[in-house]
Amino acid sequence: MQALLILFGALFTVAVSLACGRMLLRETAADIGITFVCGAAILSFAVFLIAAVDAAYPATFLALGTAALWLARRQIRFRRSKPATRKAVLYVLLPLFAAYFVICLAHAMAPEASPDGSAYHLSLVARYLREHGFHRITTNIYADLSQGIEMLFLFAFAFGKHSAAALVHLAFLLALVWQMFCYGRREGFPFAGAYAAFLVFASPVVGIDAASAYNDVAVAAIAFTLFQLLRLWEDGRQPRMLVAIGLIAGFAYAAKYTAALAIPYAIGYVAWKSRRWRDAAIVACCASLLIVPWIAKDWIWVQNPLAPFFNHWFPNPYVTTAFEKEYREYLTHYELSSLRQIPLEVTTYGKLSGLIGPVFLLTPLALLSIFRREGRQLLLAALVFGATYFTNIGTRFLIPPLPFVALAMVLALARVPAIALAVVLVHAWLSWPSIVPKYGREDAWRFRGLPWREALRIRPEEPYLMSRLPFYGAVRLIEKATRPGSTIFTTNPLPESYTSRRVLVEYYSTENQITGRILRTGSVPEDAPTLRLGFTFPRQAMRAVRVLETAAASQSGSELWSIHELRIFDGRRELPRQSRWRLRARPYAWGIQNAFDNSLVTFWISGDSLRPGMYVQVDFGGVAVADSLEIATAPNQWHVHLELQGLSPEGEWKTLAKSPQQTEVGRPLGLRRAVAEELKRRGIDYLLLFDQDLGANDLRDNAGQWGIRPLGAVQGTRLYQLP
User: Fold this and answer.
1) Cα–Cα–Cα angle for 392, 226, 366, nearest 5°?
2) How far is it, in rounded angstroms, from Cα 564 to Cα 550?
3) Checking DSSP bridges between strand 686-690 and strand 487-490, what pairing results, if any?
4) In the chain, N or C terminus with fewer CB closer than 10 Å?
5) pLDDT at site 87
6) Considering only CA atoms, which of 214, 109, 230, 224 is closest in space to residue 178?
7) Contact 240, 420 (CB under 8 A)
């Protein structure tokens, strides 16, 4: 029964997409691949609207899909394609396609065991379905990304859960390779089209990505559909085609930020070929239909229309500039010592999460196709959709330009047909799942075995997921040992799509990162507020004081400035904090009140790496007399250099002290228990810590002092209940 529900969820989603695409295109494009992708854009937009009004129920989706099929019942006809390839070639390619298709299908129908698919793509989908729509999420940066493909997953997930979503993604791969073949046939090189389609289809990273609830293959299909629509519009100049072009360009942005260049590509191409601003305007307006909803959602909920990036342009309390810099830096290098390693890693070794296949080391040959018009068009499209690759050098980010590169490369090789066929056969052999480990890394993301019994649910899901999905056991422990509706804080991503509990991952937001730092305040000595920075100056009247950071930016790296408590004194008397005081901080204006709340557990952070000009300021709302200021902070800020300034009653800023005196004090008694209580106050019910986490041993060895209760341990993780 479960296998039937999976197939129904996927096939129903595909059928509704075809119906929507057919109603849009009618007779302007009969290609089933183009029709599916265009219809998927419409269905994605419709699901967004449904989720926006809290109507995301299986019954709603069933009614929507049934209505679409009914309205399109007379138009779902596709002309039979006339084969234009020799039977000998078909005899070779069709069995190869069939063999790889069986592998893809089995893995797509098997329980979803992909890292990102189970951790956030489908965890958000499952949450939307549980809550019947969108609700404000400020603790997960992935909820801020555009999720056009996830809207299709939501439609399928409502009926067939995880595997139905993966099968929908696989449908995009079938649409892509079919379009590649049809493009080559239409342009007069059917052999090159068929060969290139197989090179993409059999690529190890393409196959495993397509069989998972990811979106990279879908983006590639969208990119190629846009490429096809532009060619078809150029030939026929039908106005309806401009609408489809605009929708697909917008769908590219909705599917993945890195595909945003599809928008200027589409608008620019139409403007260049048409010379009519109205045509370009139609494309732009139609594209905006699928772009504006995602931008508006982020603008309203997290004050950043491009969240979680460009936080320097759109400052907000949810993602700091420091985190964005660190995150971007990691994505542009991963663990490589040199970018010159990329060609071998993405083609052969697989260190960057998968490999496209050793034959793609021949990619430079694609430049030989520049002497043909089709070759120039393909290379331009490859450049457009590959231009953002170095923002994330993971292998799967090469999938969108891969179809264009494959076609251009085979177009050059096809001058000697025997060589082109030999490359295809070598690729088929090298990409076979049992062969890949012989030259690639053992941990490369790829197919492993043929899980057809798991796909048909002859075998239960849990043993398969325990063996394939890291930390699935931790999720099962959470489901078993925690209360429904509870919140769990953890330091690393989990396969959240398999739990109904709310999971907060430390690096997913500023709020979560602060929670992690609060936890380490009690568990790591260097993070405890044991450092005192004292400024003394002649007793005087002031309207405001300002603590100014003067450290050189080059010295601090990614170090942040934090303040646990700031106190101002007149002699031995602390100035009482009054409601008329106005607190200001730059560059991170949020949370400054945590430095004035009489709690050493909470703190303010600078939100960006140390640099001159950062400050914390107290405006007294009048004149106050003081002669010293003390800051309580952690000793893990080795490059902080502070200066104290005061604002005279006459309105003039002057330096009160060039630097503070530093003293160390002991850790406050009861700090651990205070931290646990603060975490509880922040809405956290449980902690799931990994054995390798900094400070995890302190919670394990001193659970009594923390006031926490151990609930179990599995796969190198430990679950604790807060008091």
Assistant:
1) 65
2) 19
3) parallel
4) N
5) 57
6) 224
7) no
Residue 218: C-alpha distances to residues 56, 259, 363 (Å): 23, 11, 22
pLDDT at residue 323 in the model: 94
Mean pLDDT of 258-274: 95
SS (H, E, C) 523-553: HCHHHCCCEEEEEEEEEEEEEEEEEEECCCH
pLDDT at 356 over 70: yes
Residue 72 near residue 20, CB atoms below 8 Å: yes
Tally the C-alpha atoms within 13 A of residue 319's C-alpha that lie toward its C-beta. Answer: 31
Phi, psi of 318, deg, nearest 5: -100, -30
Query: Tens digit of pLDDT for each residue in 534-547?
Result: 999 999 999 999 99
10 Å Cβ neighbour count for 420?
A: 21
Q: Which residues contact 132 (CB under 8 A, 6 or more apart)?
A: 54, 55, 56, 57
At residue 59, does pLDDT exceed 60? Answer: yes
Q: Are strands 653-657 and 562-563 parallel, antiparallel or unpaired?
A: unpaired
Task: Tell me the percentage of the chain whose pLDDT exceeds 70.
Answer: 97
Is there a cis peptide before residue 308, judged by omega within 30 degrees of 0? yes
Looking at residues 175-179, what average pLDDT do you find? 97
Return d(Cα 704, Cα 702) in angstroms, integer: 5
Q: Which amino acid is at 206?
A: V
Judge whether residue 713 has pLDDT over 90: yes
**121-133 burial, b if ≥16 CB within 10 A, otherwise e?**
bbbbbbbbbeeeb
State both tokens at 338: 């040199």
Owner of token pair 């449904």: 50
Instruction: Tell me if 152 sits within 8 A of 47, measured CB to CB.
Output: yes
Model's pTM, two decimal places? Answer: 0.94
Distance between CA atoms of residues 555 and 145, nearest Å? 33
Tokens of 210: 């397509």
**DSSP-based helix, strand, coil % in the chain, nearest 5:** 55, 15, 30
Name the residue among 186, 126, 160, 142 with its Cα closest to residue 14: 160
Structure tokens at 274: 């048409």
For 378, the 3-state DSSP assignment is: helix
Nearest in space to 205 (alpha carbons), one of 436, 416, 457: 436
Q: What pLDDT band is residue 671 in, cutting at 50, 70 and 90?
A: very high
Under 8 Å CB-to-CB from 85, ≥6 apart: which residues? 185, 190, 191, 194
- What distance in Å separates the CA atoms of residue 381 and residue 377, rounded to the nearest whole number? 6
**Contact, 356 vs 395, CB < 8 A?**
yes
Q: Which residues pair with 633 in a beta bridge?
A: 531
What pLDDT, on a 0 to 100 scale, did the predictor assign at position 85?
A: 53
Q: Are 214 and 117 in contact (CB under 8 A)?
A: yes
Match 């507020």 to its residue by tokens.
Answer: 529
Q: How far is residue 350's CA from residue 348's CA, in Å, rounded to a whole number? A: 6
Taking the C-alpha atoms of residue 363 and residue 351, their distance in angstroms, rounded to an integer, is 19
Write out the E strands in 550-676. 562-563, 565-570, 573-574, 582-586, 604-605, 615-633, 642-647, 653-657, 661-664
Residue 608: count other Cβ atoms within 10 Å of its Cβ. 23
**Tens-digit pLDDT profile for residues 495-517:** 999 999 999 999 999 999 999 99
DSSP letters for 402-463: HHHHHHHHHHHHTTSHHHHHHHHHHHHHHTSTTTGGGTS-TTSS---S--HHHHTTSS-HHH
Tell me the pLDDT band of 240, cut-offs 50, 70 and 90. confident
